Amino acid sequence: MKIGRWNLAPVPALIVGIVAISFSAIFIKWSEAPASILGMYRLLFTVLLMAPFTGRAVRREMRRIKPVDGGLLFLSGLFLGLHFLFWIESLRHTSVASSMIVLSLQPVLVAIGAYAVFRERTGGAALLGMGMALAGTVLIGWGDIGFSREAVYGDVLSLLGTLAVSVHMLIGQRLCAHIPSHVYSFLVFLTAAGVLAAYNLAAGIGMTAYPAREWGIFLLLAVVPTVFGHLLFNSLLRVVGATTVSMSILGEPVGAILLAYLLLGEGITDYQALGGALTLAGLAVFLKTKRTAPSPERPARESA
């Protein structure tokens, strides 16, 4: 796997990415800035950090991109922007545990989309795993109904964010088959930042009057979960495919919930524990029954 001029092995890159994105929810919880501002500066700072290393390659590839791929790049950026808008806002209304477990449904949604787009089939055991994961998420939501309506609202936002990022990853699987992953990431991050900037302008949300502490959090979100998380995952799309990357990110909810317990003092309810265990068990069954090796001849085509 290659990112710009660096060759990286998929497994170590994946481990680094999982650890990095586990901090995302913690940084967001520390911030008081609006969700759209957090998402916008997270992506904008990432683009600025990438520019010195990818600028020449981006200019070269831009001349080769076909109009249809340009449209898909915009859609990928649009859905990534929506993902950050919905998911970051969900953390304002529900716990890290609930939001992250709902987000862990991403591989199931990607698998469904992969069948529709790439005709990747899912066997009976994998379908059982999907059912277990969905049941676990329903259990988490049921527990939050007893907790507060606001928590349920947060769960719904997290689900919308999960749907958005699933579409983003499926588009990325197709585009990264013939566009270098670092170029794809740069253009998509820039597009998503532009989408969120347009939202902020339309909603009348101020974009500059934030204390130094918030700017530090914006930078942390760019460096840790985005550069060392999303950027690495985008690079893996061509190697192992969208569904396998999504399934492997199952370490994020576990890491985020543990960090929330240690750093934020958030407890875990019985419903969250039981629903989370059922969701992760179902997703583990799903992963065990799927193949992870993509075909070299087709865009990251794998049964996972």
UniProtKB/TrEMBL annotation:
Broad class of the protein's primary localization: membrane
Keywords assigned: Membrane, Transmembrane, Transmembrane helix
Q: Name one Pfam family in it.
A: EamA
Q: Where in the cell is it found?
A: Endomembrane system
Q: Which GO terms describe its cellular component?
A: membrane
Which InterPro entries would you find in this protein's record? Answer: AA-Vitamin_Transporters, EamA_dom, EmrE-like
Statement: the UniProt record of this protein carries the keyword Zinc:
no
Q: Which domain of life is it from?
A: Bacteria
Which stretches are transmembrane? 7-28, 40-58, 70-88, 100-118, 125-145, 151-171, 183-203, 215-233, 245-265, 271-289
Could you tell me which residue ranges the EamA domain spans?
Answer: 14-141, 153-286
Q: How does it sit in the membrane?
A: Multi-pass membrane protein
Its family? Belongs to the EamA transporter family.
Q: What is this protein called?
A: Permease of the drug/metabolite transporter (DMT) superfamily
Q: In which organism is this protein found? A: Planifilum fulgidum
Its lineage reads: Bacteria, Bacillati, Bacillota, Bacilli, Bacillales
